[in-house]
Amino acid sequence: MIIKSDQKKDFETIYEIINDASIAYKGIIPSDRWQEPYMSKEELKKQIIEGVEFWNFVKDNRILGVMGIQFKDDVTLIRHAYVRTTARQKGIGGKLLNQLINMSETPILIGTWADASWAISFYKKNGFKVLPETEKNKLLKIYWNIPKRQVETSIVLANNDWKSN
Questions:
Q1: Cα separations in angstroms, 126 against 82, 106, 118, 159, 164
Q2: Contact by Cβ (8 Å): 158, 106
Q3: Strand 2-4 to 53-59 pairing
């Protein structure tokens, strides 16, 4: 079952799932971008304050996956898509993504690490396409607040509603 997160009540669980699942990035993303925990509690709080709304995949009263959506200007951003390590490869990410796609009334953009091949494959399988580097650089500066080094090592994917400039 997919439900909107009670971000205050579920905060610790969201934090736990993000940092459990993000271990997949260790040794994949540039070492200068890796930290432990991958996302601090302060950063998670900041993301929520800035408008990231989390949705949970719940089974047997346990949250197994989380995914954020952020409505920003003329686009929808999918943010922080994570499934517990023990619950991967069971369709949870796809169910969460489809829920958030159905909520969007604007083109959807997703940013991820360029070397996270599994994430890129997942999004492509769900109808997203990788945007050209020049467009990616522009979009990351407009819609995300990330360091220059992260811009250099990331990609942006878009759904079919996105019209490249």
A1: 16, 17, 12, 9, 19
A2: no
A3: antiparallel
* Band of residue 165 on the pLDDT scale cut at 50, 70, 90: low
Amino acid symbol at 119:
A
Q: pTM above the 0.90 mark?
A: yes
**pLDDT tens-place string over residues 28-62:** 988 988 999 999 999 999 999 999 999 999 999 99
Total Cβ atoms within 10 A of residue 160:
10
Residue 67: half-sphere exposure toward Cβ, Cα within 13 Å? 22
- The CATH number of the domain covering residues in 2-158: 3.40.630.30
Name the amino acid, one letter, at 153.
T
Distances (CA, A) of 148 to 14, 23, 104, 121: 26, 22, 28, 24
Helix H or strand E segment including 150 = helix 148-152
Peptide bond into 37 cis (omega under 30): yes
Burial of 164 (0-12, 13-18, 19+ CB in 10 A): exposed
Rounded CA separation 147/152 (Å):
9
Among 4, 102, 45, residue whose Cα is nearest residue 18: 45
Q: Which two tokens stand for residue 111?
A: 């940013």
